[in-house]
Amino acid sequence: MSGSAPPVSNPSESRWQALRASERWRAPEIAFWVGLAAVYFVFPKHLLFASQILITGLFALSLDLILGFAGIVTLGHAAFFGLGAYTAGLLGKYGVHDPIVELVAAAATAGLLGYASSFLVLRGGDLARLMITLGIGLLLFELANQASDLTGGVDGLQGIEIGPLLGVFSFDFLGKVAYLYVLAVGFALFVLVRALMVSPYGLSLRSIRENPRRAVAIGVPIRARLTNIYTFAAVIAGVAGALLTQTTQFVAMDVFSFQRSADLLIILIIGGTATLYGGFVGAALFLVAQDRLAHLSPEYWLFWLGILLIFTTLFLEAGVVGGLLRIETLLRRRFGGWR
Amino acid sequence: MLSLLGVLFDGLAYGALLFLISVGLSVTLGLMGFINLSHGVFAMLGGYLLVTLMDRAGWGYLACLPLAFVATGMASLVLERTLYRPLYRSSHLKQVLLTVGIIFVAVAAATYFWGPGQQRVTLPEALRGRLSVAGVDLSWYRLFLIACGALITLALVFGLERTRFGARIRASVDAHRTAEAMGIHVDRVFQITFAIGSGLAGLGGALGVNVLGLDPYFALKYLSYFLLVVVVGGPGSVLGTLLAALLLGVADTTGKYYVPQVGPFVIYFAMIVLLLAFPEGLLGRKKAK
To answer: Which chain B residues are closer than 8 Å to A309 by Cβ?
Structure first.
């Protein structure tokens, strides 16, 4: 990025320009979102599947906030997703049918759990964090399992009614309204996240990830930053969970499962961490591959997933989006400032 | 009905198994700071080796146990060389991803070779009966498990505290860099410790087929138990791990007998509380940096 800026004598001046440049929306980003809108017209028969991808991408984006940007390793992020899903589902079953109200309620409950658990999670080192996030996830899974009167247990939560969106557009079973709804919510949250991450706030998160000691030295309040980014990520995960409930009108217990947390990590790693788009790209690749391969045999799917994970970890550090960005930088350096 | 003593006894046997499997993880975590979530895979391997050797090759139970130990240890060395070693100095996230990947592959492989069902082992005649002591029925099998646990604890404590190699391990855990500066090959020490630890996990898995069960998801199902034992016991401490394993074994068994509807809740809840109360572990060594 700084390669394309006009030569400036003062180094701090050019750094400032680089920061400004990262704030601007670039052409590939705009193309990405226009492309998502175009999916509505190009694949009218696969809109339900496309919404699943978007929801998973949003969920992965929320993990990216704490894992990619803030560097917190977690194995229990599905806790917030599941909580949001069940909140929306239970509201839909017992009388509240307005999608937006459900969304807000799901965001609030997930955010509350995120805020409360952030103090537990941020106490120890990486290992203790892993254990506590894992523990919270398993605890909620068991809770959903035991309280089967309320949650339907293994059979899942059924009989969820979702009212028309804004009182006008009711959900059709081709998923047209659902897709546009998910796209709109996803885009709004993405814009918010993007603005946050290119702001000084987002930079301070990265500084915590890269070097906590120096971050303290330049006056970054580490605990407060981590607490509120953890809460914010929980809110987005909760919204993603609620969207899944609303578009499928069903909640299965596996929204809380360890497998979901682990899959999400994989999705984010494949796509690329701390790139904002990695989650969406990873979700698309992962879900399409799963759709094609998994019904051959679930065990084989797990095998290839494991192999993929091992290879990505050992050899492909930056993920797909990270790799593309690196190629772009190389081309830039080679051909000067094309834009 | 089982009396309180009987439940306690079952819990101790269960705890002894948890100890055998987790102690290797504890030492390698303390030594290298490597977060190995796939440690349970070695226990699984030991269990499946035992089942296969007994069913297909007709070996005796007792003859299989040492073999499970040695073979798992060897297999772990191969994995250590090829997969784990490149990641010792990289971030915890990568270690987590790699080892979760290994678990997935192991689940798939176990399903492919042995099918998705639970495995059972026919115990030898000598271990089948029960021993009545003061009105409590104690099964010989569980007594045998406890004896194995006690023996191996003694051997480990002796090895760590009284032998030259044990001194090297302790030095490496306490002060990695200083130990290296004193001429200890920390890498070599680690490699051998890793193999022994994984071998013990294999032995534990083989011993515990009838108590812990054995299916392809074994490594995932008990993942939180092994981690819990290690973290609560304090990484790098044998006696801490023993204490934590026995506590966890007794608590889990008691919970399952008396309040089955609460189920695994107790464990997960205990895990979170204990971690918050003892971030360094019950008998954890403070690490010198």
So the answer is: 97-98, 100-101, 104
- Of residues B256, B233, B213, B190, the one with CA closest to residue B33: B190
Subunit contact A299:B264, Cβ cutoff 8 A = no
Task: Judge: B272–A266 Cβ closer than 8 Å, yes or no.
Answer: no
Tokens encoding B245: 């394993």
Q: What are the φ/ψ torsions at residue B288 (nearest 5 degrees)? A: -85, 130
- What is the SS3 assignment for B138? strand
Measured in angstroms, the CA of A298 and the nearest CA of chain B are apart by 9
Which residue from A132, A302, A310 is facing B108, i.e. has the nearest CB?
A302
Which chain B residues touch A146 with a CB distance below 8 Å? 261-263, 265
Contact status of A138 with chain B (Cβ, < 8 Å)? yes
pTM: 0.80
CA dist A256 and A151 (Å) reads 12
What type of residue sits at position A152? G
Mark yes or no for CB contact B235/A123 under 8 Å.
Answer: no
**DSSP secondary structure code for residue B119 in this structure:** P
Which single residue is written with the structure tokens 């017209």? A41
Comparing CA positions, the residue from B91, B174, B243 lying closest to residue A127 is B91
Six-digit token string for B6: 């009987």
User: Over chain A (339 residues), what is each successive 10-residue block's mean pLDDT?
Assistant: 50 72 78 80 80 90 87 86 88 80 88 87 77 84 79 73 70 76 89 87 84 83 86 92 85 82 85 83 85 72 83 75 78 65
Query: Which chain A residues are closer than 8 Å to B101 by Cβ?
Result: 305-310, 313
Q: Read off the pLDDT of residues B27-45 as tens digits, 9 standing for 90 and up.
A: 878 777 788 888 889 999 9
Nearby residues of A289 by Cβ (< 8 Å), 6 or more positions away: none
CATH class of the domain whose range is B4-119+136-277: mainly alpha
Between A and B, how many residue pairs show a Cβ–Cβ distance under 8 A?
A: 119
Nearest-Cα residue of chain B relative to residue A262: B100
State the Cα–Cα distance between residues A116 and A26, nearest whole angstrom.
37
Distance of alpha carbon A91 from alpha carbon A87, whole angstroms:
6
Measured over all CA atoms, what is the biggest interatomic distance in chain B, rounded to whole angstroms? 59
Cβ partners under 8 Å of residue A276, min gap 6: A61, A64, A190, A193, A194, A197
